[in-house]
Write a structure and sequence with these properties.
alpha/beta; Rossmann fold; 2 domains; 7-stranded mixed sheet; 7 strands; 19% strand; globular
């Protein structure tokens, strides 16, 4: 049974598929905004150097460049990610991405794959909706973050995640073909270290008709190739034309006014 993907009207569009760049300046290191790049900051007086402590913030997340950087950062950040970063920064992105998914999802056989699930915030947000009855599996590069996701429970005391998988989106995933009825991701395609080449594996593991809801940093949408990839996949009949819903990422602080798009489409 096909999904109904709702049109999103009255959004402010620009030439990049309907959303604005969040910062008119361009980071030369591929991080979008110079405000989120440690290299940019270190090249200016008073710039930050790489954080070797366990006191992390938004700059550290946007300074990740390789899978090894990711593993190092989140291994040290896992224990305090929610108690410090999520709480202190007013991080609410997962609520918006989950809401965009649920607005368009029609339950069918097969679990949902939460890509880059981290400590399980998206799973919690999905299960907070009493009408959502599908099972969820999580995928993340960091085993330390997955251990926190494993502890998440529903209101009824059941594990939020049916299964959790360690995997690197820049390589092949150890997951079966045509297994998932939905793919959701919040944060994975926002830091610049995972590009649209990861879609090959996500399309492989998704069922025909699977609903995708992917949060993407607007600063990376064009310069990291997401715009081109979506256009090519639509032309090839692989996916439906994405629609975009802007959602809040942070409720407080310097980035509270920014909105990131969630790309919503189906696999054909």
């Amino acid at each position: 049974m096909p999904y109904v993907v709702k049109s999103i009207a009255n959004s402010k569009w620009d030439t990049y598929w309907g959303f604005e760049m969040t910062n008119n300046r361009e980071c030369p290191h591929g991080k979008g905004s110079p405000d989120w790049c440690n290299k940019c900051k270190s090249e200016n007086p008073g710039g930050n150097q790489r954080n070797l402590s366990n006191d992390f913030d938004l700059t550290d997340a946007y300074s990740v460049e390789t899978p090894e950087d990711n593993l190092d950062l989140y291994a040290r950040w896992a224990d305090t990610y929610e108690s410090s970063f999520v709480a202190d920064e007013g991080y609410v992105y997962h609520h918006g991405v989950a809401a965009a998914f649920l607005e368009n999802f029609i339950s069918r056989n097969g679990p949902i794959l939460d890509v880059g699930c981290g400590t399980g915030l998206v799973g919690e947000a999905l299960c907070a909706n009493s009408s959502f009855q599908s099972s969820i599996e999580g995928l993340d590069l960091s085993s330390e973050m997955l251990e926190h996701a494993r502890l998440k429970k529903t209101a009824a005391g059941q594990p939020i995640y049916r299964d959790l998988h360690t995997g690197d989106l820049t390589t092949s995933l150890n997951l079966p073909d045509n297994a998932y009825s939905g793919i959701i991701s919040c944060g994975t395609f926002t830091h610049g270290h995972v590009g649209p080449e990861a879609f090959d594996e996500l399309y492989r593991v998704a069922q025909p008709g699977a609903l995708f809801a992917l949060g993407i940093n607007p600063d990376h949408f064009s310069n990291q190739g997401f715009e081109t990839r979506f256009r090519e996949d639509v032309s090839a009949g692989i996916i439906t034309a994405p629609v975009y819903k802007k959602v809040q990422v942070y409720s407080t602080g310097a980035h509270a006014e920014e909105r990131f798009p969630v790309g919503i489409f189906q696999l054909i």
